[in-house]
Amino acid sequence: MSIDAHGIRKKFGAFTALDGVDLHVPQGKLVAVLGPSGSGKTTLLRIVAGLEFPDPGSGRILFHGDDVTDIPAGRRRVGFVFQHYALFRHMSVIENVAFGLRVRRRRERPSPATILERAHRLLELVQLDGLAGRFPSQLSGGQRQRVALARALAVEPKVLLLDEPFGALDARVRKELRRWLRRFHDDIQLTTIFVTHDQEEALEIADEVVIMNQGRVEQVGTPQQVYDKPATPFVYQFLGNVNVLSAPALAGALRRDGHVVEDVPEGQIYVRPHDIELSPHDAGGSGLSAIVRHLHAAGPHARLLLEQVQTREQVEVEISRAELSDLNLRVNDLVRMRLRQAHSFDEDYAI
Amino acid sequence: MASAIASTIPSRPARAASPRATREPAWARWLLTAVALAFLAFFLVLPLAVVFAEAAAKGAGHFLASIAEPNALASIRLTLLTVAIVVPANVAFGVAAAWAIAKFRFPGKSVLTTLIDLPFAVSPVIAGLIYVLVFGAQGWFGPWLIAHNLRVIFAVPGIVLATAFVTCPFVARELIPLMQAQGTDEECSAVTLGASGWQTFWRVTLPNIKWGLFYGVILCNARAMGEFGAVSVVSGHIRGETNTMPLHVEILYNEYNIAGAFAVASLLALLALATLVLKSVVEWRQARSS
Fold it and tell me: HEC string of chain B?
């Protein structure tokens, strides 16, 4: 079932959480809503779920084209998973999963035996059937989140909404679980919205990424699109590291289609640290002179902090450790840098 | 396991060489403990012992006679009636107020939170006087009540009102921090899973707060039975009619019926002890369930 939101606004007192947000999630896709805290992403998810309501007269929520704006959460058939699991602490795992079926009206409620059988099947699906009798406090964070997912799936939701589902877990479990979630989604093909502030997580598992900032949508696209072609300075800075350099200082160094750009734009040029190429300074040729100020070689890549000679701007550069040892650089050495790819929000450049 | 722990503890001289910042010399610890225990013995244990000793002074026959005396029985009945009305009303108010304060945003929330504490800040005598001024013969509603032949002051309704006022913070105070700490996530989950408001309350909220609620009820009950000041002002001290247990104790005492006074008082003291035992059990259960 597809999900659409049109022109959603939401204020909490003087604070505008959502300022006219549109969202389209195609049937069966996994869409990540990505943004810093306070960007309104969780509020948007809660409005889709029916846990909050948009400001009167502001917007509509459509499921599969049907307006559900005024339908309460319990009848929207959404599965909602909370950042802190929100498992019922006084119920065993199996009872947590069975809850959604047990509270149904008598006419729609399956028999107790059927309820238990279905709960067990869901626990098998999330690979936790051995823990049916445990209480939430006896489980690890990753296990709790899978119980929460099984519980959400028990009501056979039409859409799945995940609010920072891995936010409270440690780094290794996060990585494992997000890959597991991606495979899981490929198996069950349920339309899913996934809220996160972790760009790596969003780019790794989502079919499509919606980037939000200050209650507005900044950009929508596939992970590759938003990473390679950020639509706004905010997206550029939010997705990975970026150097922001003043454009006039790059005069004579900016090229387009192999020619030096004469009319250097005002404003700023965005360059990712791994899009900068270094060469020995004495070799001559094009490029900007810089001094090595700091070297950090632990980890898979070497990270260097350079200072551009002309403007004294600091530039972060990432090169492979093999390149670093070829260059044989030390702190305070001079080096020449060339921008493989650079971007201003007027034009694209390559040097 | 004991040996494993022991092996990780450095030997004694090493420890003595680096005393912890919070470690006091032995004499200071002994002195502080002794002062605390002496204080407890003198101000708490001794009076309690006196109550039971005095109650038993004239033998079991006199003790039973003092309690079985009609006016004493009437005071016990009235106290139980008051508790039977006040405690359930308090539970309803406490749960509703705590729910509203902990789970919703609304204007005037901080005012409500402060107002709930008002009975703790006001002297019980003032609380009683307020009701006299409002419902008494010279009060705001006095003439209207007299015209309709209704009695509030110097009657059971006044006693119930005054007791309810004095005890009203107990349940709410107990529940508000608990419910605030638990947040609304579990309720939200229940709602998205299709539970109705009632189902959410009975199956999710209530089980989560049951020990806190029980604790509040115990305290509320103890205070409702023992309340003297506020009830004294509104009761009128009519024997066999508007005397609660604490008021009855006072009357007996003023009549130099010391053994009788202490016999009834010992019932209240027993209640206090039972309350403490229950409270410990509840605290233990609460610690275990969280």
Answer: CHHHHHHHCCCHHHHHHCCCCCCCCHHHHHHHHHHHHHHHHHHHHHHHHHHHHHHCCCHHHHHHHHHHCHHHHHHHHHHHHHHHHHHHHHHHHHHHHHHHHHHCCCCCHHHHHHHHCHHHHCCHHHHHHHHHHHHCCCCCCHHHHHHCCCCCCCCHHHHHHHHHHHHCHHHHHHHHHHHHHHCCHHHHHHHHCCCCHHHHHHHHHHHHHHHHHHHHHHHHHHHHHHCCHHHHHHHCCCCCCCCCHHHHHHHHHHCCCHHHHHHHHHHHHHHHHHHHHHHHHHHHHHHHHC
Where does the pLDDT of residue A257 fall: very low under 50, low under 70, confident under 90, or very high at 90 and above?
low
Q: Can you name the residues that pair with A209 across neighbouring β-strands?
A: A32, A221
Q: Are A53 and A60 in contact (CB under 8 A)?
A: no
DSSP string, A52-93: S-PPTTT-EEEETTEE-TTS-GGGS-EEEE-TT----TTS-H
Contact yes or no for B218/B198 (Cβ under 8 A): no
Cross-chain Cβ contact B193/A99 below 8 Å: yes
So what's the pLDDT on residue B5?
A: 43
How many Cβ atoms sit within 10 Å of the Cβ of residue B19? 10
Instruction: Identify whether the C-beta of residue B210 lies closer than 8 Å to the C-beta of residue B286.
Output: no
How far does the CA of residue A125 sit from the closest CA of chain B (Å)?
Answer: 19
**Cα gap A278→A336, rounded to integer Å:** 6
pLDDT tens for B235-262 read 878 887 888 889 988 988 898 888 888 8
Contact at CB, A104 and B189, closer than 8 angstroms: no
Q: In what order do the strands lie in the sheet with A314-320?
A: A276-280, A334-339, A288-296, A301-308, A314-320
Contact A88 B186 (CB under 8 A): yes
β-strand A259-260 against A334-339: which pairing, if any?
A: unpaired
B185 at A interface, C-beta within 8 A: yes
CA dist., res. A319 & res. B131, Å (int): 82
Strand partners, A301: A320
Q: HSE (CB half, 13 Å, CA atoms) of A118?
A: 20
> CA–CA separation, A151 vs B244, rounded Å?
53
Q: Please give the model's pTM, rounded to 2 decimal places.
A: 0.77
What's the pLDDT score for residue A262? 61
- Sort out which chain A residues have CB atoms less than 8 A from B186's CB and list them: 86-89
Instruction: Give the Cα separation of B17 and A272 in Å (integer).
Output: 56
Check if B181 contacts A (Cβ < 8 Å): no
Cβ neighbour number for residue B225 with a 10 Å cutoff: 24
Residue B8's pLDDT band, with cuts at 50, 70 and 90, is very low
Average pLDDT of A334-349? 77
What Cα–Cα distance (Å) separates residue B230 from each residue in A323, B36, B176, B193? Answer: 86, 32, 26, 48
Q: What is the DSSP string of A228-274?
A: HS-SSHHHHHHSS--EEEEGGGGTTT-EETTEE-SSPPSSEEEE-GG
